[in-house]
Amino acid sequence: MDMTGEERISASRDAVWKVLNDPDILKACIPGCENLDWISDTELEATVAIKLGPVKARFSGKVTLSNLNPPLSYTISGEGKGGIAGFAKGGCDVTLIEDGNETVLAYVINADVGGKIAQLGGWLVSSWAKKLANRFFENLGQAAAAA
Question: Which letter, b or e, does each residue of 51-63 get, where b requires 16 or more Cβ atoms within 10 Å of its Cβ?
């Protein structure tokens, strides 16, 4: 599944970039995130608990930052395993565009799921993923504006 969108944030591009690279803020912005810790300059370990329809799962995995172009853009990608619930993997290209006193965060997401979650049906999974992405970017915008 692929998703694109943008979030207008009432903060400078530098402030948004800092928020995008702060694991404590990211943890608070990611729905269901239980832990998010740096393990190297470009890798984090994450655990996220989700409920999608009748399926509850805790996904654990690594997140990698690549194509770093501070404070303009980067790619964040990862893969998580959720036991019998299945797996989720994907990536997101993030671009920050200054617009006066605000920043437009543009994103392109590609994601794939397998296992029990994939059996729920493409429409349900896609709808859930869009809601999750929207909630994350709204939370991130609020955190950047408050920082």
Answer: ebeebebebebeb
In the structure encoding, which two tokens stand for residue 33, read together? Answer: 């995130």
The predicted-structure confidence for 35-50, as pLDDT tens digits, reads as follows: 999 999 999 999 999 8
pLDDT in tens, 123-138: 677 887 888 888 998 9
Q: Is 70 helix (H, G, I), strand (E, B) or coil?
A: coil
Cis peptide before 54 (omega within 30 of 0): no
Of 85, 88, 141, the closest CA to residue 115 belongs to 85
Domain 2-146, CATH number (from 3.30.530.20, 1.10.340.30, 3.50.50.60, 3.65.10.10): 3.30.530.20
Does the global pTM surpass 0.90?
no
Q: Which helix (H) or strand (E) holds 30?
A: none
15/130 Cα distance (integer angstroms):
25
Q: How far is CA 93 from the centre of its chain?
A: 10
